[in-house]
Amino acid sequence: MSRTAIHDLADGMTLAQPFQAADKQLRVNRQGGKYILLKLSDRSGTIVGMMWNADETTFDTFDRGDYIHCTGRTQVHNGSLQVILTEIQRMDPAEVDQSDFDRFDANQADNNFTRLRELLATISQPALHALAQSYLNDDSFVQSFRQAAAAVSNHHAYPGGLLEHTVNMMELVRLISPRYAKVDTDLLLMGAFLHDLGKIDELRASGEISYTDRGQLVGHIVIGVQRLGEKIAETEASTGQKFSTGLRHQLEHLIVSHHGVLEYGSPKIPVTLEAVALHHIDNLDAKLASYSSIIDSDIAADGNWTNYTPSIGRKLWKGDS
Amino acid sequence: MSRTAIHDLADGMTLAQPFQAADKQLRVNRQGGKYILLKLSDRSGTIVGMMWNADETTFDTFDRGDYIHCTGRTQVHNGSLQVILTEIQRMDPAEVDQSDFDRFDANQADNNFTRLRELLATISQPALHALAQSYLNDDSFVQSFRQAAAAVSNHHAYPGGLLEHTVNMMELVRLISPRYAKVDTDLLLMGAFLHDLGKIDELRASGEISYTDRGQLVGHIVIGVQRLGEKIAETEASTGQKFSTGLRHQLEHLIVSHHGVLEYGSPKIPVTLEAVALHHIDNLDAKLASYSSIIDSDIAADGNWTNYTPSIGRKLWKGDS
Amino acid sequence: MSRTAIHDLADGMTLAQPFQAADKQLRVNRQGGKYILLKLSDRSGTIVGMMWNADETTFDTFDRGDYIHCTGRTQVHNGSLQVILTEIQRMDPAEVDQSDFDRFDANQADNNFTRLRELLATISQPALHALAQSYLNDDSFVQSFRQAAAAVSNHHAYPGGLLEHTVNMMELVRLISPRYAKVDTDLLLMGAFLHDLGKIDELRASGEISYTDRGQLVGHIVIGVQRLGEKIAETEASTGQKFSTGLRHQLEHLIVSHHGVLEYGSPKIPVTLEAVALHHIDNLDAKLASYSSIIDSDIAADGNWTNYTPSIGRKLWKGDS
Amino acid sequence: MSRTAIHDLADGMTLAQPFQAADKQLRVNRQGGKYILLKLSDRSGTIVGMMWNADETTFDTFDRGDYIHCTGRTQVHNGSLQVILTEIQRMDPAEVDQSDFDRFDANQADNNFTRLRELLATISQPALHALAQSYLNDDSFVQSFRQAAAAVSNHHAYPGGLLEHTVNMMELVRLISPRYAKVDTDLLLMGAFLHDLGKIDELRASGEISYTDRGQLVGHIVIGVQRLGEKIAETEASTGQKFSTGLRHQLEHLIVSHHGVLEYGSPKIPVTLEAVALHHIDNLDAKLASYSSIIDSDIAADGNWTNYTPSIGRKLWKGDS
Amino acid sequence: MSRTAIHDLADGMTLAQPFQAADKQLRVNRQGGKYILLKLSDRSGTIVGMMWNADETTFDTFDRGDYIHCTGRTQVHNGSLQVILTEIQRMDPAEVDQSDFDRFDANQADNNFTRLRELLATISQPALHALAQSYLNDDSFVQSFRQAAAAVSNHHAYPGGLLEHTVNMMELVRLISPRYAKVDTDLLLMGAFLHDLGKIDELRASGEISYTDRGQLVGHIVIGVQRLGEKIAETEASTGQKFSTGLRHQLEHLIVSHHGVLEYGSPKIPVTLEAVALHHIDNLDAKLASYSSIIDSDIAADGNWTNYTPSIGRKLWKGDS
Amino acid sequence: MSRTAIHDLADGMTLAQPFQAADKQLRVNRQGGKYILLKLSDRSGTIVGMMWNADETTFDTFDRGDYIHCTGRTQVHNGSLQVILTEIQRMDPAEVDQSDFDRFDANQADNNFTRLRELLATISQPALHALAQSYLNDDSFVQSFRQAAAAVSNHHAYPGGLLEHTVNMMELVRLISPRYAKVDTDLLLMGAFLHDLGKIDELRASGEISYTDRGQLVGHIVIGVQRLGEKIAETEASTGQKFSTGLRHQLEHLIVSHHGVLEYGSPKIPVTLEAVALHHIDNLDAKLASYSSIIDSDIAADGNWTNYTPSIGRKLWKGDS
């Protein structure tokens, strides 16, 4: 029987299908009755589930993270859709279709990674070329990079999102950079590749995306510089060549300054043309990606405008309906 | 005899060649002697000229704006190059090579305008196509647009600079826009064309670039909207078709919001994807153009850095010397 | 039987009287029961209404905007007053006293409009006088202006509020302007008249006050300049006289700069004495009007202070009780 | 022989008339020669004077503050007018016409003070009335108040300027306040009277206006509150009535909050309607006064605009010439 | 039977013990039933109490502020702990152990006050010494100071907190000041003592800490200066010596500028070394105290981080668990 | 013959003594005559020197950095003291007393370093203790650290200043930290030691203090983290123990966040108590040091105030003269 993705649920639908139990709580209402409050998830999103008059008997049959077969009906409460459950059955992972739950799109990641290799291969400056290979030859890095998200919320906030954003920016670099005579395309391309790699350690991409301790204490900009230091050391070891100090500082500057202003967490503002370009290209791709996704996921029923979105301080135009 | 452009003058050169007298003053020194202070210009820039022990006899032989044949010698004073003049002779305009003095590059403008026509021709939406033609069919507009500057100082601050910046942005739009599925390329291309047209009336491009009264009182953003209103009326008259109100508001929004934030003079922030894209593409081209020109014209002799430039709040890296 | 205005309702009152159904929703509670959630309005304000155990049978008998006869009882819930309804009957508009529901006060508007004519009549500068007449002779403009609100919330946020605020400011101009020798009273009076006229198209005054698409995309400042352009063209046509370009730019500047700083949406800051005066007089009237209305409508029961009001970042002193 | 005021001097004039020596220095030029550098003043302004080849013989014949008879000629140096002196003679104060040098206009102060008494007399609230009398009965206060300046530069920056600004504001209060029903005119009038009185101790009005130590360490806002405390004590003593604590706090609040926002040095923002009104009326009068005076004293020769004035961040429109 | 402090309550506990009724409301639920909503307090904190199906019969048996014996059970609702009450009995104050309810720790205050006397006794400058004694000899001041809080929320927000913070800062002054040669330790010590004394009148420390009218209208900085003026007058009377005007301005400056910047409510920024030191020492102690208390009272169950705290714009690290 | 230090020079002194030629230029005056412009330095400061009517004959006899014996006379020009030279003789370095020219005070550095060792020895946490030893055992680090400056201008801007500032802060930590129970003194002491070590590579301390390329591109915060990484690796190698990852992140956070807010270049704000304390202690010492030095070096002759200092936005009180 075909499953309806959470993203496609509507008011008043009857359901009998698997979900993942992202979170669960047993609560007591004002009259003293108990009920179960769930966060149900699949790859398309999450939804609140409520099971009234339920107690430990049901609550203890499954754990957070388990797949559960849910019977119930959707309804709108305070403007949000939720599922009122009448039955919950724990399922064996083997019983569910993993593709319904995995937010990571392996095909997309494969395509992006192939394109990443091609783009890095266009770098002709030998030291940068060798450095790029050190990253690509590091299986552990490749594995983490493919899965990493670019943000907790905001733009490209899903497993594989960092790779998607990185490749997007590198494509823009290849289109734009040759139009500006004084900009070094190889350097800018490498900057686009490196600029957010620290996010691999800043964010936990498995389960719900969240900050690691290291991410909160040190931040992806400094982590990115640390990782670059390790890879330069590996490159020197593998090539037997000292990596140019000046070039290293140029790369570090690209990472360090890419937020453009101190107020957004860059400890240095861009002072090279490549750093200026990188900041603006990053901004362009990040803004178009996040604004597009706000429009996509907007649930305001009527009219041409999204709901007011505090993080961007505005409503967006969705187009004449 | 070949003329040395102001841009190429160096300390200690002997000169006997034409300049334009951009400004002139007769001054008295502390000991009561008189001298002439000049601002000399050619297409490559301006320089201060001083003629000691000179009085009305010489001063009254030429007017501001005249071409003058100057004999003298360059020297550095307080860190700036100037010319110490020993003789000044007014010249007939017919005697000078106009190409030495005209900051407007007609060839470049022709090429840019040809490219502008091609880019506007790619617009397939009929109403936008017709509107673009109204602009192109207006000879007075075309004449002004070709000569207009994009700024008094800062980026593209020369006659023809507005056209250069506009075409540049339209090129970027054609490269970037197709990569974002929800962005309407025709609309964005039209936005890039329209966004700064109000500068034609905001700035005086003949002589030294400066603000008009209208420019200071009303500003290019509102002027651009006014001009658009006139052209839409012309388009309606020529096509016999009512221009869509919704589409008009979209275009007005692109002009009105292209500075991105209120603090920079946009009375509305971008709320359509095209307006968001336009703002960031404008920023990217303007910043790369102005930073490149700061590096080009920097005179700091030693080392890898430009002088500190207050308008951008930083020194720029010029590259390993 | 006399009707109690919403503004005068108190806890524990029994009601049987007409309201307008400003909004309606059918909801399902946690136990699966249905209930109706209403926004009831009259000219004095709005209040939430709840009808428990009600379903489509009742819900479908009336539409949003209909008048309904409501039986029920008021109660305080989470600190707000609401009405618990036991019966709802749709009414014919002829059955209700329109004066109970019309937030627009026609008498007040008549008085304000008479005063507006008198104030505009004091303008002696011929071109400004003729321009003012063009506005007054435009019946469609007059009709819209009388009904327009000055804001969605904040100051003068009711139908007729724009006229009220405009006349108020013009009165202040007549009192204050003659005290400053260099200020042109005619020009300043005209500026006070024109400064917010763009709000006629920015806001929808019928039903709940809200932004139009044009209002959100273009904004009342630019719309006001566009409207002025149309009226100047009409004036030129009716008088057969070219309107002075310099004077036109002065008027446009008054509209364009009246928010005083870029951060508040003025694309130009005030640079004429009249524009400086206009900004401060606008501020004075708007602030005193909105702060007075916050004090009037404050419901904090105890003491000398209003509740903290986030939009103004403070509590206000209500006076020693 | 009639004297030319400094304000009316022009380039190339021959002079033989008295000035006040506001400042004097004996300097050595690069060739080792000595010269005298003077700051000459009269009631219309100040100007630099230079006497070449002058030494102690001349320098020691007069002191700072003395009147001196100067023979010489005006000239423009680096864009500023100065006087090149050939002879200096110390004068007896009895020889000069004091009205040429006294920046304080006693007639104007008399008129303003008469009007001040009338305006304070309109206060009907008994305690405020009595308090006002305490100020008026204090001869030392009256004497200081008449002479005080409202600022070092900026608005009303001349002896008598504080009184002028205070009376101006009180006039505005009488015109504006009755239009706002909830505003207490007596209280607001008293606020306008009190708001800047601390400037009497903050600034030294004799000689060049400058900050006192107390002014720099404590500031006029806190000083104004201290002075009010003293006057309330005197009022209580003279009337034998306890001054209402609540009313006292209202008055203190008017002084304390009149700059409107913390960033401008008010330790509290306005929270009473009178304080809100006071802040905006102060702003209106101060801005119109200072902008008018910038236009009056502007020396830009050509065109419709003043020079760019950093303190207000703009050029001002001087009117179509 | 031993009482469990509110701070130590956990989910699912059965209770039968006294609380203070800090607040009480009788409410009606959606079904029309009545219930009592209470704010229960003891010295360790406050908690919400709910008594279902209770009406005036119970509600009227006690007043706000009374001690009540409560029977019931704790539960978590929406993430907060509350008490569901089944029985409420008003108690006589004599029946409760006052030490369970008194948030003021008299022993701690005694110790702090003793230390305050010792620290003030180290001041050797005679005028400052005498001034300090005037404060200490004022029993009414001493009484109020011991009980005062330093804030409504934020740091040292409890009765006795102002004394605690003041003594802490004076201890830091004695440790730090001698390391900076140009800093006058006596003056700085006196500044630390005086800087927040205005809070005695700004805040009501009895019952729930809240702002007084004077506090909101005038603020503790100005009040502190007023209090200082009174004490200087007393000191002059008792010693028969005029207090140095310069020294008085130094002390006033320390109070007036201690918030460091205008934006935080100081009408003057620090311009003496002692004022600079005072501001930074205040900041250091206040931040460490408030951040420590946020960590102490954080209830986030899992992991190393507190919840996000809006007032400080961050999560805090609680340490590796 | 005893030498007068630059700091002690006054107007009108005759000189014949050595200086170091920090900079030299040969210039041409308006009349075409040549002169030499020098920047003379010794350990107490720098001063401008002018030799009139001097040409290549003298100019070429010495190089920048050479010691020269100067004969001449001091004079005030435009408010600054300068030396008019009549004779210049190049000297052999052996002829001068090095202690007159060396801005680095070796004794002071020795004392500071001894104290640094003592303070680091108080750290009892084994891993931190071992890490501190790694720094102390690195001779190249020790050598650089002793000579490093803490700033180009501002606080501790001299060779040895970084060590001075570091030891000062560590002393404050030992005094203050034990007063706050939740603060880990070992960690905070280590943070004070590490926080600015990146300045060793950010600034060039030899000759005039200036930024290195690495300093401008990467900045001392990121460099400090890089250096820490190297030292942790050395410590692991020497102890054979893995350094705790959590502890490493704590140390990195102390470096990364010590500027306190993003706007001042910290890519992360302080989120641990130690980081909060470190930021405030750094601020306290830096401000008191720089303000004290502004007062010391102020040259305003008259009165109680320094000149207005733009970098701190204020005049400072120098004390009653």
Automatic annotation (TrEMBL), chains A, B, C, D, E, F:
- GO MF terms on file? hydrolase activity; nucleic acid binding
Q: Can you tell me where the transmembrane regions are?
A: none
Record-annotated HD/PDEase domain positions: 158-296
Q: Which UniProt keywords apply?
A: Hydrolase
Q: Which domain of life is it from?
A: Bacteria
UniProt xrefs under InterPro entries: HD/PDEase_dom, HD_domain, NA-bd_OB-fold, NA-bd_OB_tRNA, YhaM_exoribonuc/phosphodiest
Q: Which SUPFAM superfamilies match?
A: HD-domain/PDEase-like
Q: Which PANTHER family match?
A: 3'-5' EXORIBONUCLEASE YHAM
Tell me the protein's name: CMP-binding protein
- State the organism named in the record: Rhodopirellula baltica SH28
